[in-house]
């Protein structure tokens, strides 16, 4: 496998393996048996911190659309709703990640996968394009996070 | 006979006329009740460890009623930080769902007495506080009024510059040491039994509540923070402390984010122009705060 791309979040490196595709909502997508296996990118995991809760609002067999809420995740630093990056049919949900979300921290690109979807995947990005997306969105994300933190900041 | 009850009136930090009026009305209302020893002192949170007020608090062996401009939970754990301990008593300012058990780190001796902590922000009139104090006196001292003569209120008047430091709720703390690992300023340390301790409270960065946000148990309070969940209000959700990334994880186009940000900035600017006075005066300080926070978040390796 070729070397991963390294995106710097401030002084902190995040690795993006080049054997897979990515989505603008910070999920990776690996083609497996004609379907896409999806997980969170190192960028997303770094923002969330140590993961403690993963809840799904969808079940295998459900047909969903891009942008549809599919569940929520909670880490030591932040929480987030999860949204589908693709149109398609939900195939599997990784029970190991639900049972122990810390698996996502320890093995985010492998056994810490989240779910699989059967769909066209035509909106997915190459690692290089996702890297370029991060270059644009990281400064905005930083500003947004600082504003959120600032809103509840001391007098 | 149960003896006298110490009543502590901890004055407000800001000293606003409304606050001073309430404090005065309570002192006047307590008059010369013989069942109590009334002591007026500076704001509880600002008291230094070596202050006369703390020395006096530590010398009290009886039950205490503490009237302070703090959530009862904050006042109770500020006292705990000064080794002033007991059961947390229930008052009208203490929500029902909050435990009134003595909760402390293991190995700490909690004396068999009650500390009733009343939040002076709960009511603008003295009546409810005076009624509460009368009810506590009735339930403890009873009709056996102490023979001692009524004394005048004592005021411990000493300079107490505003402080900013974390207060730990040991009823919630799980000793996970996240705060110790997270704080960049060396505020936290370990006691002899490897328990979390506040080693250098005044090394804390003024205005920074970050350790409160990362504490998985919601055990760290900054009583002077404007967010009730951080200031020690048990009713406020701990979830509110965490950042919500849904907007980022929704796959929103960065251009849309930028546009939204621009629109917000525009709206803020418009409203600032409509209210030139206070808004302009506040701008430099909140900008400073934000800059500081930016540095902290960068350091925190978010």
Helix/strand layout:
The complex is a heterodimer of chains A (155) and B (302).
Chain A: E1 5-9, E2 12-16, E3 21-22, E4 27-32, E5 35-40, H1 42-48, E6 51-56, E7 63-64, E8 69-75, E9 78-83, E10 88-93, H2 95-99, H3 102-106, E11 115-118, H4 127-151
Antiparallel strand pairs in A: 1-2, 3-4, 4-5, 5-11, 6-8, 7-10, 8-9, 10-11
Chain B: E1 5-10, H1 17-30, E2 36-41, H2 52-59, E3 64-68, H3 72-81, E4 87-89, E5 114-119, H4 127-140, E6 154-155, E7 167-168, H5 178-182, E8 188-190, E9 196-198, H6 210-214, E10 220-221, H7 228-231, E11 243-244, H8 246-249, H9 254-274, H10 276-299
Parallel strand pairs in B: 1-2, 1-3, 2-6, 3-5, 4-5
Antiparallel strand pairs in B: 7-10, 8-9
Describe this structure in words.
The complex is a heterodimer of chains A (155) and B (302). In chain A, a hairpin with a 4-residue loop joins strand 3 (21-22) and strand 4 (27-32). The longest helix of chain A has 25 residues, at 127-151. Chain A has four helices and eleven strands, in the order βββββαβββββααβα. The termini of chain A are far apart. With 155 residues, chain A is of the alpha+beta class. Chain B is an alpha/beta fold. In chain B, 36% of the residues lie in helices and 13% in strands. Chain B is built from ten helices and eleven strands. In chain B, the strands form three sheets. Chain B has a six-stranded parallel sheet. In chain B, a hairpin with a 5-residue loop joins strand 8 (188-190) and strand 9. Residues 276-302 of chain B have low confidence and may be disordered. Strand 9 (78-83) of chain A pairs parallel with strand 11 of chain B.
């Amino acid at each position: 496998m070729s070397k991963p791309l390294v995106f710097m979040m401030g002084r902190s490196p995040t690795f993006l393996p080049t054997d897979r595709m990515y989505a603008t909502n910070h999920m990776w997508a690996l083609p497996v048996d004609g379907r896409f296996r999806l997980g969170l990118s190192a960028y997303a995991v770094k923002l969330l911190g140590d993961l403690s809760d993963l809840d799904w609002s969808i079940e295998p067999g459900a047909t969903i659309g891009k942008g549809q809420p599919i569940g929520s995740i909670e880490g030591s630093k932040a929480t987030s709703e999860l949204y589908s990056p693709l149109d398609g049919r939900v195939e599997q949900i990784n029970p190991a990640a639900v049972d122990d979300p810390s698996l996502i921290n320890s093995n985010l690109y492998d056994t810490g996968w989240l779910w699989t979807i059967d769909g066209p995947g035509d909106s997915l990005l190459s690692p290089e394009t996702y890297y370029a997306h991060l270059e644009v969105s990281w400064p905005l994300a930083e500003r947004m996070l600082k504003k959120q933190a600032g809103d509840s900041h001391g007098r | 006979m149960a003896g006298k009850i110490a009543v502590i009136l901890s004055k407000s930090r800001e000293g606003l006329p409304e606050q001073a009026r309430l404090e005065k009305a309570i002192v006047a209302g307590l008059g010369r009740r013989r069942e109590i020893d009334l002591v007026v002192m500076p704001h509880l949170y600002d008291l230094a460890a070596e202050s006369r007020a703390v020395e006096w608090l530590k010398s009290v062996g009886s039950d205490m009623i503490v009237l302070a401009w703090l959530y009862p939970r904050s006042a109770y754990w500020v006292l705990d930080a000064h080794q002033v301990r007991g059961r947390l008593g229930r008052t009208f300012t203490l929500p029902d769902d909050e435990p009134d058990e003595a909760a402390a780190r293991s190995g700490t001796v909690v004396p068999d007495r009650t500390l009733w902590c009343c939040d002076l922000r709960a009511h603008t009139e003295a009546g409810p506080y005076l009624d509460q104090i009368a009810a506590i006196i009735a339930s403890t001292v009873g009709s056996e009024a102490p023979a001692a003569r009524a004394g005048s209120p004592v005021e411990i008047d000493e300079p107490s510059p505003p402080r900013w430091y974390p207060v730990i709720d040991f009823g919630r703390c799980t000793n996970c040491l996240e705060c110790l690992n997270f704080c960049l300023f060396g505020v936290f340390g370990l006691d002899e039994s490897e328990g979390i301790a506040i080693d250098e409270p005044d090394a804390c960065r003024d205005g920074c509540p970050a350790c409160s946000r990362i504490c998985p148990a919601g055990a760290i309070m900054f009583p002077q923070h404007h967010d009730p969940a951080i200031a020690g209000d048990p009713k406020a959700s701990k979830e509110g402390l965490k950042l919500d990334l849904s907007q980022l994880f929704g796959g929103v186009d960065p251009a849309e984010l930028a546009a939204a940000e621009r629109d917000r900035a525009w709206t803020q600017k418009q409203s600032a122009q409509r209210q030139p006075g206070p808004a302009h005066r506040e701008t430099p300080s909140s900008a400073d705060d934000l800059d500081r926070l930016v540095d902290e978040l960068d350091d925190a390796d978010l």
